[in-house]
Amino acid sequence: MFLTRECDYGVRTIRALACGEKKTVKTICEMEEIPDQYAYKILKKLEHAKLVQGIRGRDGGYQLVKPLNQITLLDIVSAIDDGLLLNACLKEGHVCTRNPEDKPCSVHIELERVQDVLVAEIKSTTMQKLIEG
Questions:
Q1: Do 41 and 32 meet the contact criterion of CB atoms below 8 Å apart?
Q2: CATH number, domain containing residue 55
Q3: CB within 8 Å of 102: residues ≥ 6 apart
Q4: What is the domain count for the chain?
Q5: pLDDT tens digit string along 68-87?
Q6: Averaged in consecutive runs of 10 residues, what is the pLDDT profile of the chain (133 residues)?
Q7: Is residue 21 classed as helix, strand or coil in its secondary structure?
Q8: How many Å apart are CA 108 and CA 87, to the nearest integer?
Q9: In Å, how far are 30, 56, 68 from 11, measured between CA atoms?
Q10: In b/e form, how buried is each residue of 73-100, taking b as 16+ CB within 10 angstroms?
Q11: Which domain range does residue 16 map to?
């Protein structure tokens, strides 16, 4: 299981804006080596999740809406991707013939446990903690 490239770019975008100043898309892309074709799509998703704010006009750009200690990795992953799943069988509503209610699959149970640990960890990791080390 990997975080998508878009999630990586989302984290880098937040890092580029960490100083609290408004930055242009071009500046963000140059600072974090994000291809232009991804930047607008990612910024739109981050804006929709209310993590960044876009400012239009000649002096426009993007800036953070929340302080870094209130933005978690889970916030970014949730904004960019549909979710973080170790296996498709963990997706809500997924029906697996190997995991009936009367005899749960031991693999599913263990993956679910690991998934819960992973989600708890990325939920507790703020961007401030990540950037400052």
A1: no
A2: 1.10.10.10
A3: none
A4: 1
A5: 999 999 999 999 987 777 77
A6: 85 96 96 94 97 92 96 94 77 75 81 90 94 88
A7: coil
A8: 9
A9: 15, 23, 11
A10: bbbbbbbbeeebbeeebbeeeeeeeebe
A11: 5-132
